[in-house]
Amino acid sequence: SDVCSSDLSILSRLNEEKNNLWYLYCMAHAIHLVSSKCSKKIPDSIESFLKSIYKFFKNAPKRLAKFDDFIQTMNAEIKKLIKPAKTRWLSLSLSIERLLLLWEPLKEFFIEMKENDKVILMNNATTLIYLQFLNTFLRKFNTINELFQREVSEIFNVKNEIAKFYYTLAI
Question: Distance (Å, rounded) from C-alpha 74 to C-alpha 10?
Fold first, then answer.
């Protein structure tokens, strides 16, 4: 059943009996909806690229071991790629952040492995710019979202954080 958006909703039925009810939307859900709507402006190729990088190593222990060895020769820290989530756009933030941490080692590895399709996308400045943009803004969306999901309410912090968030989006 619909909670509040139609004439047959739970809220409208309760308001028939008590006319002074208010419904406060879940702010975490609202923020997720805003970020999802914004994500529709990002080319599908960016999310496909993220998934293709993850799939390249998924269920391929030899490739993953080769990549780990490759990272060690570069004296870089070994970190696993994080699977991009299908259902929550905000959770892509972790996947993007990890990919950006491993950007150069991955690019060099794909060159060595002759994975030309991935090298082409990684050499495309637009791909990197979109990922950096998403990394920055999804982190900000996540920070605000976490404020509304805390067990202990910190209402005094929420106002300041939301003001900073709106200011960041407006720039």
Answer: 59
Q: What is the pLDDT of residues 1-60, one digit of tens each?
A: 455 566 667 777 777 777 776 666 677 777 777 777 777 788 888 888 999 999 999 989
CA distances from 48 to 7, 17, 29, 107 (A): 40, 50, 25, 17
Residue carrying structure tokens 């909670």 = 3
Cβ-Cβ contacts under 8 Å for 32 (sequence gap 6 or more): 88, 89, 90, 145
Amino acid making up residue 171 = I
Assigned token pair, 89 = 């756009």
**Amino acid in the structure at residue 57:** F
How many residues does the structure list for the chain?
Answer: 171
Distance set, CA 4 to CA 12, 21, 28, 166 (Å): 7, 11, 17, 26
Residues 8 and 29: their CA atoms lie apart, in Å, by 22
Residues 6 or more apart from 111 whose CB is under 8 A from it?
119
Secondary element (H or E) of residue 162 = helix 155-170
